Amino acid sequence: MALLELDHLSLAFGGLRALSELDLHVDEHEIVSVIGPNGAGKTTVFNVVTGVYEPTEGDVKLGGASIAGKRPHKITDLGIARTFQSLRLFLNMSVKENVKSATYGNTKASPVESILRLPRARREEREVDALAEEVLSFFGERLMGYRWDQPAYSLSYANRRRLEIARALATKPRLLLLDEPAAGMNPKETHEVTELIGRLRDERGLAILVIEHDMHVVEGISDRVVALDHGVKIAEGSFHAVAAHPGVVEAYLGRDPEALAEA
């Protein structure tokens, strides 16, 4: 069963059509990668799914129910979390505080209860703290132990990426959207992120939609690949089938000179 469905999804900014009748689905426990050159509409897909933009036409469904037009925090409550192409951490807060920040929207204690440290506030604080520690433990020594109390700005770039994923996990998502998780990483870090994405699916049971330019990562993680160009789906299937598709080759490298001359 499809967990996420985009049904003839279109988005226009005035006369600019950013997405055009896009059909896309992500099944339970599936990793789907979205590829395409810059400006293909990949991050726009994420922004529509998470409620940043409302589609001009078509629908977005989660578990069969429409979520198009809902506010971002409501979509998060329904089970979709994301990371961003550009890191968006609270750099002066500690590692653990960054993760805990994702949970407070679901707490019930009032400001007065929190200030006076009444029983419900204390109980929720313990629950939030335990959740943050459990999520951070998933990343092993990279985000464990003494790092919990370190400010986020003291982390390496790769560990900041891990922390952003950890913060997303703290919302207890069913579907995780990762926007270029391996961007800016060296080969060793890229390999570790590839393994991490597989573990997120296998050990935490998540469905994952990934935007990625590194084809080694795409090949290593993807159950299915969707290629976009100017907001239009031009290919879908296995990595090798999509990578060899003439439309994908043309989108990345331009048209064959002989074919262009004939045209």
Question: Can you walk me through this structure?
Answer:
This protein is of the alpha/beta class. It has helices at residues 42-49, 72-78, 95-100, 111-116, 119-137, 157-169, 187-204, 215-221, 239-243, 246-253, 257-262, and strands spanning 2-13, 16-27, 31-35, 57-62, 65-66, 80-82, 175-179, 207-211, 224-229, 232-237. The strands form two sheets. The chain has a six-stranded mixed sheet with strand order 6-7-8-3-9-10, with helices on both faces.
**Spatial arrangement of strands, main beta sheet:** 6-7-8-3-9-10
Main beta sheet strand tally, sense and closure:
6 strands, mixed
Query: What's the total number of strands?
Result: 10
Helix content: 25-40%
Strand content: 15-25%
Helical segment count: 11
Task: Please give a quick description of this structure.
By secondary structure, the chain is of the alpha/beta class. It is 39% helix and 24% strand.
Key terms:
263 residues, alpha/beta, 11 helices, 10 strands
